[in-house]
Structure formats: C-alpha cells, structure tokens
Design goal:
Blueprint lengths: L10 H22 L11 H19 L3 E6 L4 E6 L4 H10 L2 E2 L3 E7 L10 E4 L8 E7 L2 E7 L7 E4 L4 H4 L1
Length: about 170
C-alpha cells in the first residue's frame, strides 16, 4: 500500500483540473456558435449576432464601454468606444466597416419609457449591455434580436415583437 508508483491524484488536483477545463469551455463554446452547420456563418444576421456578442466580451476584457450605432434604412452599423474623441467617432461613422446590405434595421426598442438615443446600444465595461430589441427586415422576413443585459447570447425571434410580447 505504500508503493509510490500506485499513488493517485488528490481531490485538490482533480478540482483544479476540472475548474481549468470549465473556464476554457465557458470562454470557447460561445465562439463555436457561428460555425454550426445550420447557421451559415456568413449570413448577415449571423454576422450581426457575432458582432454583438463580441462587443459584450470586448467591453469586459478591455475594460471600456462600447457603443453600437445603427443607421435605420441604411443597412450599416459602426462601433465607437468611450475613449474615442469626436474626430475618431466621426471617422468610424464614415468608414462604417460593418455593412449589411440586404438587411434593413427598422428600429431599436428599449423597455419602459426610454427612447432610442440616436439608435445606439451601449455595452458596459462590466460585461453587460442595454436591454434592447433590434427590429430587422431581410426581404420579406421580419426578425427581432433580443439583447439581455447579462447574457452573451442574443435571442432571435421570428417576426416583429415588442416588450409587451416578451413580458
């Protein structure tokens, strides 16, 4: 019984290994969602969902607030952050690197009486975001993206829904 070759792992070692594996899965599994076969990772809606999810993650990891600006009817979005000056923010709007031709942003809806301030969603450095509904149209198809403050995943709801429908 005192044979050193028959020694096993201690409970602490097993718990540490399980914790490390859990953290790795927590970080990597959401990133694999875009590669699912039925998702067609190149679709415009999928790219927008991935952008939103990455903004939540980047806000937390980089410890800065990000703003996602949407231009209704123009099929484009741009991203700014709290450390940009007015000139950099203006350049981000003009260059608008995220173009979603064929996908029309109809509007944003926030809960309660809050109005969409310039069609902007804020992603806070703590890892949460504004609660919002993004109403989209792709051809004849209506879709609503539901952003929850503390969830990375973005829920896709067929049709146009409002907060009265969600509650």
């Amino acid at each position: 019984m005192n044979n050193p070759a028959a020694r096993g792992y201690t409970l602490v070692e097993v718990v540490v290994v399980i914790a490390v594996i859990s953290i790795l899965l927590y970080v990597t599994v959401p990133m694999f969602n875009r590669f699912l076969p039925g998702d067609q990772g190149g679709s415009r809606i999928s790219r927008l969902v991935v952008l939103i999810q990455s903004l939540k993650q980047n806000a937390r990891s980089e410890n800065r607030d990000y703003l996602l600006h949407m231009d209704p009817g123009m099929s484009r979005v741009w991203v700014t952050h709290e450390q940009m000056d007015d000139q950099e923010a203006g350049e981000a709007m003009v260059t608008s690197t995220f173009s979603f031709s064929g996908l029309v942003f109809e509007d944003l809806e926030f809960p309660g009486d809050r109005q969409a301030q310039g069609q902007t969603i804020r992603f806070y450095k703590g890892g949460w975001s504004d609660m919002a509904l993004i109403h989209l149209r792709e051809g004849d198809r209506l879709l609503t993206l539901k952003l929850e403050p503390f969830l990375i995943e973005v829920e896709q709801v067929q049709g146009r829904v409002s907060y009265q429908d969600c509650m």
